Amino acid sequence: MDNKNICYECGKESGYHEGFWEVGDVHICNECFDKFYALCDECYAILPKDKIVTLPDGSQFCRDCLSEDYDLCADCGQLVSKKVLVNGVCQMCREYYK
Ligand SMILES: [Zn+2]
Ligand SMILES: [Zn+2]
Ligand SMILES: [Zn+2]
User: For residues 47-69, b (16+ Cβ closer than 10 Å) or e, as one string?
Assistant: First the structure.
């Protein structure tokens, strides 16, 4: 095993059993990945956490996928699927005002 990977963030070498994440041209160890990166549930892109949005149900999306499928409720500000938005308002808010 001489093709060791070096973590781009912390400089750690990959251990024998340790798989590193490939992020673009660089490798990231699991610890740094947890700290700084996340995986989009929709397109599986690996992106820095500030480019990933975590929904209340724990799923994570990049901004590209989000703008296609999700939007903010105009009323409660929650990120919800565009399918449940009517006039920009989520189902929960609509029922509340019924
Ligand atoms: Zn690292
Ligand atoms: Zn995505
Ligand atoms: Zn709402």
Answer: beeeebbeeeeeebbbeebbeee
